[in-house]
């Protein structure tokens, strides 16, 4: 097997193991899932799984990093293709929240349960918490850069605190998913994306300065 083909095989097997682990975690919880059960779900030997991941925590960390990297990559691709005059804040919300429009209610629930699991483990495990902080820092940098560009273009008030607004924008999808999961009623995600985009843009537009009267 050529090195390139070998790397591709390893990447594919890692994807299979991560998908199997996620199914196990959702079905019975992270704490109650064993490496042996993940291996069985993926159809490999228990020894084989340790070729790719040393611990169960590494698997959860990889799941978290995989999702964050994919979403940041999608956001950057969308912004790069944004036409002149396009609203990057609205486009960003559409990328992050728009994914939920393409999921069935059962798939959304599985995603939301998975995210809650990640939050719990990040708060409980200091090592995983540090990795999660790194993911949040990546998002914060991406969003802050967008807001900086918006201020430079005159489409965002100079008085807006970029760091504070970045934290709000990062927290919005997380909070909305938790509310849907625990609130008992499904969201109309298309309407949420529209309402959030409109409200944010109207509230963030630069305030016209009064024209001084001629003396």
Outline the structure in words.
With 215 residues, the protein is mainly alpha-helical. 74% of the residues lie in helices and 0% in strands. It has two domains: 54 residues, Arc Repressor Mutant, subunit A; 147 residues, Tetracycline Repressor, domain 2. Helix 1 crosses helix 4. The protein is elongated. The model has no long low-confidence stretch (mean pLDDT 85).
Biggest pleated-sheet summary: none
The CA-CA distance between the termini, in Å, is 84 Å
Considering the protein shown, what is the CATH homologous superfamily of the largest domain?
Tetracycline Repressor, domain 2
CATH fold-level name of the largest domain: Tetracycline Repressor, domain 2
Mean pLDDT, to the nearest integer, reads 85
Question: Structural class, judged by helices and strands?
Answer: mainly alpha
- Residue runs with pLDDT of under 50 for 5 or more positions: none
Radius of gyration: 21 Å
The overall strand count is 0
Brief description of this entry?
The chain has 2 domains: 54 residues, Arc Repressor Mutant, subunit A; 147 residues, Tetracycline Repressor, domain 2, CATH 1.10.357.10.
